[in-house]
Amino acid sequence: xxxxxxAGLGLCADGxxxxxxxxxxxxxxxxxxxxxxxxxxFLPVTTAARGKTARARExxxxxxxxxxxxxxxxxFRIVQAYGVMRIVGFGGAPAxxxxxxxxxxxxVIESGVQAEPCRFIKSxxxxxxxxxxxxxxxxxxxxxxKAVRVLVNVTILQRSVAVELGIDDVRPVEPxxxxxxxxYSLQPAHI
Length: 191
Description:
mainly beta; globular
């Protein structure tokens, strides 16, 4: 899938994943349109109930974005879909999203663990999940009060998804980062 890309720039070739910025709360509608026009869209959503009597409500894990497989010579252009603002890219060319970042988002959704969007974090301890349905997944460790969360990042969008786990379910990834001897507490942003 990389034969048409410019080496090292992350520009996309046929079949690569791209991020499509859409109007807020139009993610599902855009994904349906793209599928209707022959694209392979991916909309990471989670279902959460608010309060004891509230119905479960579906919400996007990456608000304002839909992911889609890119076509170099399409019958229908992505930006023609109603609600699409732009394709994320550099210098007017769409940028490819690494396959492993899309796979990580899919695993979060399929696992059924509680996940929510949060602010992109550049610093923190890189960890690997060593137990449960997300075993092998790597992310950034956060301590939020008494809970532990692991961030799964979509680097190009500077967006993250937080997954709540037990402290015994993660271990530091070596040798990329030094493991601190004391714990740090970072608070996620409420989006």
